[in-house]
Amino acid sequence: MASLDYDALSPGYDELYGQEQMEKYRECFRLLRITCLGKVLDAGCGTALLLEYLHSNNIPYEAYIGIDKSAGMLRQALPKLRGEAHLIQADIHHLPIRDKTLDQAFMFTVIHHLEAERALGELVRAVRGPIVVSRHRRLGCRLPRVSKLVGMLSSDDLHLL
Do 127 and 157 form a contact (C-beta atoms < 8 A)? Predict the structure, then answer.
């Protein structure tokens, strides 16, 4: 699994990766024709750039829940909170969320840091609707067992980008 010190990286994360992440969100929402969301999980939310994208593009959501393991990233995310938005410091492998209580989940450029099968299993457990996962192009080969879960889900349930 890839590993970076995101607590140390957090103060400059948006400057380093913000534009790249926004382009991923824009392309995802365009491809999947997403215009509104229900109770949405941002798994590995980092500095809550997805929440910023939703606000800046007037995409309504019922509730936003951002989960990240890094306290530093979550500190950077706090100023972006407004509306029905919440941050939780937690491990994606053990989501502190009841079964099937969320409508959608997004995991952008995070899965290569995780035990993919276990993390996706947790998303499947917690989310009743579509799950969108973007993979790092150069690290996609690290995800051989993901195909097992992909086979269990319909194309309406899991979108690998």
Answer: no
Q: What is the DSSP letter of 59?
A: -
Q: Residue with structure tokens 């365009």?
A: 30
Enumerate the H helices of the chain as residue ranges.
6-9, 13-31, 49-56, 71-77, 116-126, 146-152
**56, 75, 90, 146 from 9: Cα distances, Å:** 24, 12, 18, 28
CB-based burial of residue 129 (10 Å sphere; 0-12 exposed, 13-18 middle, 19+ buried)?
Answer: middle
Cα–Cα distances (Å) from 148 to 54, 99, 105, 113, 118, in that order, read 31, 21, 19, 18, 11
* Domains, in order of start, for the chain: 6-160 (3.40.50.150)
pLDDT 10s per residue in the chain (161 long)?
Answer: 446 799 999 999 999 999 999 999 999 999 999 999 999 999 999 999 999 999 999 999 999 999 999 999 999 999 999 999 999 999 999 999 999 999 999 999 999 899 988 999 999 999 999 999 987 665 554 444 444 555 545 556 777 76
Q: pTM for this one?
A: 0.89
